[in-house]
# Entry
Amino acid sequence: MSKKCISCNVIKNITDFHKYKRSSDGVRARCKNCRKEYYILNADKERARVKKYYSENSDKVKKYQKEYGRNNRDLINARERKYKKNKRHTNEVFLISENISCLIRNTLKLYNHKKKSKTRDILGIDANEFKDYLNNNPYGFTYNDKEIDLDHIVPISKAKSQDDAIALNHYTNFQLLPKEYNRNIKKDNEFDREHFEQWLSKANCI
# Structure
């Protein structure tokens, strides 16, 4: 099935038009490319229009959003998973932010507490600054290396309370370590720099 776009006057496949229930054929009059171009050229105008509509119909919009969310939960979750998966592969800062947020959340679960504060408030810096902090180490380790772990210098197991757990998730208690050393040697012990550097020296000679 095809249709002619009223903007570019090109006959295109029906899949090149956004769906629109109020239209007799179920799609918009302008093709996706023309609509995209229009919104780019009229971004400020469209933002103002949407803002005005929302302020005048806030109750209606909230009701629709609530009903849509309830009736399309699986679709929304799938779309969000796909979006996050793609962003993890293309945005290193987003990946770090997601990982550290999950790590802190799981840490607090040990004390039967929910994560109430923002990750940045607990960490002490934002995700981009955290990436730079981690990568600025004397060993040349980088966060995106699959052979490198994100490690707590003082293990979370040392925490006696929720406050302790939060304090141990400050950025100054994080470092990068080789997986082999972190998982098989350091494990749940406090970091011993002298011991690590002796191990690293021997590992580099192999």
Summary: Residues 92 and 144 are 8 Å apart (CA to CA). The radius of gyration is 25 Å. The first strand starts at residue 2 and ends at 4.
